[in-house]
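Structure (tokenized):
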């Protein structure tokens, strides 16, 4: 394991231990549920959106360290952002975790999303990391359906 992998593992452990934006948002106006049957992760994402800006976002639920850390990082990244910006981040996240594990990663350009590059090699973990993002997408579309990773 190289230093970079270790660094990002530490980030995931920290977010799992002290998740940011964890809990039910009181005055949310969008929300959706997500479920990852493979691992058993359950998550709900709550959003307060006003004038196309994500004013507040939280997540709640039960899951493994990666799903929880992912929810924590995801909410941190999209809070205060425009809807277009959040959708762009979702796209960037999706591109990273579905890219060839052998391909080079532009860690600088990715910023905080770079943390997720390490999970590319573990398809089952990709679902854990993706759950919060897929649930976010579902919430933005105001869908009643549960987001299922598959
Ligand atoms: Zn999981």
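Design, position by position:
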């Amino acid at each position: 394991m190289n230093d970079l992998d270790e660094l990002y593992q530490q980030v995931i452990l920290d977010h799992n231990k002290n998740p940011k934006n964890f809990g039910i948002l009181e005055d949310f106006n969008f929300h959706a549920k997500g479920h990852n049957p493979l691992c058993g992760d359950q998550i709900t994402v709550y959003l307060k959106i006003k004038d196309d800006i994500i004013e507040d976002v939280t997540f709640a639920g039960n899951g493994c360290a990666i799903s929880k850390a992912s929810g924590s990082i995801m909410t941190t990244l999209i809070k205060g952002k425009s809807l277009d910006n959040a959708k762009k981040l979702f796209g960037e996240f999706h591109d990273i975790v579905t890219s060839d594990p052998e391909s080079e990663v532009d860690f600088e350009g990715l910023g905080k999303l770079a943390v997720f590059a390490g999970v590319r090699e573990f398809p089952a973990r990709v679902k854990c990391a993706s759950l919060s993002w897929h649930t976010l997408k579902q919430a933005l579309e105001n869908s009643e359906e549960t987001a299922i990773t598959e």
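Reviewer-requested clarification: Residues 31 and 92 are 22 Å apart (CA to CA). The pocket of zinc ion is lined by residues 36, 39, 41, 63-64, 66-67, 128 (CB under 6 Å).
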